[in-house]
Amino acid sequence: MNSKLNIGLFGFGTVGGGLFHVLEKGKTVDATIKKICIRNPQKERSLSPEHFTFNPDDILDDPEINLVVELIDDAEAAYAIVKKALQKGKSVVSGNKRMIAYHLDELIRLQEEHHVALLYDASACGSIPVIRNLEEYYDNDLLKSITGILNGSSNYILTRLFNDDMSYPEALKQAQDLGFAESDPTFDVDGFDAMFKLVILAMHSLGAYVHPEKVLHYGISQISVSDIRYAKEKGLKIKLIGQIIKLDKDQFTLFVLPRLVRPDEYIFNVEYEYNGVVIEGECYDKQFMFGKGAGAYPTGSAVLSDITARMHNYRYEYKKNRYFKPLEYTDDVLLEIYLRYENLVDFSLFDFENISEKYTGPSTNYVVGTIRLSQLKKIVKILPKLNVFLAFTGKLE
């Protein structure tokens, strides 16, 4: 790559605008944003009109632009932009986790075919350089598991529920007012966001790609006072956790579920909008990475880091996929879960293999028992219609 980066920027929201000003004033990288493609011509901008275009081809067909930075919300539009940029021999920096998760296998192939690079550290955990660390430091097959709080919005809500006795609607409203959650919070609180990040981390940790539609994700939108009381009585907290677990030398599993967390676990004290990732290995035991996982500045810092890396010709090597036999994903595992339910009709949908704890009361019922991940996946789409809440206890068989 040339020492000078001429950037074509897609999107000029909070992150895109901040990136423009950092590159204009900063001295860390020899890069200039030559053209910015935006969608809404009516919106007021802080820059003069000559900086902008409404035609993506003005960037994609410009031979002087050697790096495309994609920072838009629309995953399908982002996919079209990134794919065409790679095909035209332009390297890309992106933070669009949904787009990357759905198309990662194809995007890896396009990078190799056209001798370019796609960097996306901003897509997983914001300012925490987890992807780069998995690529460089943990570039072997000794990794055993990844356990992470991967979504700052849901973690903020859960912190307020446990620390301040807020109701779920109150905590959600506060998260929205502070800009941690969108007006439609489904993407965050129902585990989609964490699931997309987990798919990406699986490729860089174990060299395996699992399509998002195969991954179980269940969130926190149905949590109740009874569930919080249960956790507090046990001395636990509930966190929304993404997990990748190597089962043996051939297989692994992954899922996103609320989890009952013990005080001796690193993620127990990860609060508010922060993310925390625990990487466990055969020889190095557990490593903990902590930081802000969302927001304009954390995301912007990750984008800037990727831009700087491209100036030095950095690219992901996907070593575990390229040099080791990729593990196979399986959902044939037993999870121990806590299930709170209201009526026996709802309870009957859960095919427990055994139950170790059971409580029936005037206002709530719960059980703790083991159930297969494959069985949970069969019913997960109907769970939002039921008055139930479930959480992984951390025990897997």
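Above is the first protein from milestone M3; the second protein from the same milestone is given next.
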Amino acid sequence: MSNTSRLTYLTSVGLNHDPFATPVAEQETSSVEDIPVFYSYYLQPAFFTGNQELSEKDLRQSEKNFFIYGEPGDGKTTLRLAIEAECRTRVEKTLVVSYLLGEDLKNPLTLEEHGDRLAKAIAIDLFIQIVEQYDLFETPPNKKLIEALRKQVALGGRHISRLMRLILDNSMPNARAGIGAYWQTVGKAAVKYVPKTEDVVKLLQNCLDDPAERSVLTGWDLVQQGIHAARLWGFKRLLVMVDGVDTRHRTIKDMLALIKPLFGKLPGLAAQDIYFRFFLPTELQAKIEQVLGASRLPNYLYMPIIIKWREDALRRLLAQRFFAAGSHLQGFEALAERNLDIDDKLVTAANGSPRRLLRLASDLVDVHVARRGPGDLRISQSDWDKIQNLTQRD
């Protein structure tokens, strides 16, 4: 089926884009060099710790380390991206750092290797968030601030250098994100409009110079250098978002070995208002609680969080996708034959998984478009029958 046929149908029923193109958060945020429409899709699931239900604000502001568990497709990465976007667009002076442990890591990291890797992540995110929030600074940065940022730019290496050259050597991008459209070069999504002002250009030109002193630090000393730079620039706390620990290519043992070295750092970092958010598969929960209990990490420093999707939340998620695409519809019901109850069927078949729900919605569109005749907008029972064999798909 051609994308043209699919888009023609969606346009004909009042949608201004395809909100079911992919159910994968990383693909939704990387599909455009601008502020992704993905952020308008976000709908908060229920978060539980024991019998207590928490809010997304709790996950963003709480002075604890959270271990956030969910099944594949429960929206762990979506939640991470939403929290990051909130921190970057609110005046809370929270530096949010993406610490991704992806498939490029074939073996567990030592604690020192974690330090080197995390320090670079801090450098990149600090640079971006300073530029994003530069218009909030009341006075120009002094030499001390610029020198601290230069060291972070040097640590970020070619990633930040390339980003700065894109900004300095090109005119303002024709994008809602402004120069934020360039963030994709370092694997970050734009979250707001960022102007290319004379002050920003001057700051970047100053940062192109080598720092007065080349850093000879490594590992966690480099992390502390990044924390110090963040403090100088006015960030009062740090949130480190640990993601990419999954079961696709790793055993439970390997996943645990990958993040376990970080646990011993949690008390000392919490004393500096630095907190971690681990986004983890459910099968790790028992092992992690066992390790944390054996390490005698104080209970007040960490909390397990479970992501749960109720059926009413899945219905709202479906409605939110239609709304984000400019439609007044709240689901497929108005596009279906009478008494088909297609939204109920989709939600039931999703079995508590938002990813499965979105895949089924996408399949339903494809099946209908492949079958329909001229002017036939109504989803039929036969359309639903053809995707029944897909309801067990992960």
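Note on the second protein: The chain has two domains: 3-38+310-390, 45-308.
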